[in-house]
Prior knowledge:
Layout: H1 5-22, H2 29-42, E1 52-58, E2 63-69, E3 75-78, E4 81-83, E5 102-106, E6 112-116, H3 118-121, H4 131-137, H5 145-155, H6 161-176, E7 187-191
Antiparallel strand pairs: 1-2, 2-5, 3-4, 3-6, 6-7
Amino acid sequence: MSGKGAAAALYAALISGLLRILAPRRRSPSELMKSLNEALLERKVDAQYATLSLVSWTARTRTFMVVSAGTLPPMLCRKGKIIDSRAEGVPIGLLEDQEYDQVKIEAQRTDLLVLYSDGVEDQLGKDAGSLDQATAAGKDLETYGRERLEKVVKGNFRLTPQQLTEKIFEDIDVFRGSTPLTDDQTVIALRVL
């Protein structure tokens, strides 16, 4: 979401309402994302855009369909190994005539699908201070990063999704120490039964 505060909250509420209206009439996540982008552009909310992932699940075939509008690709963990998936796309509300590609993820029993916001990877490490302070001091900024997240997921893949997300947030807290949060941090973990 571009911006923070009341304007961003109102834009998020608009997106949520549009999703409720548009979702029942769309057959695929890619169609829904395209329709959502068009609806936002019709409303001409200046300088606002959002990143968003849409995920659908078909239990019969154990298939996730993932569409991304500027979000990081989901992480699929199968028996302690990370299987890469590439879901990419332009943020919604930014450009006209966008097509959004669906990525099909064929899952197996016990697989974990982890979706997370960029604030997880971008979190600054211990004693970095603020981004402005670190830049002014010429410090090399160490961020949490995908590799560190993968290590936590692989090392705890047998836990329940709730326990795994708690481990991720505990690890982020240890990594950042007294450094303030630099962005929102959202993690969603799903287990295939």
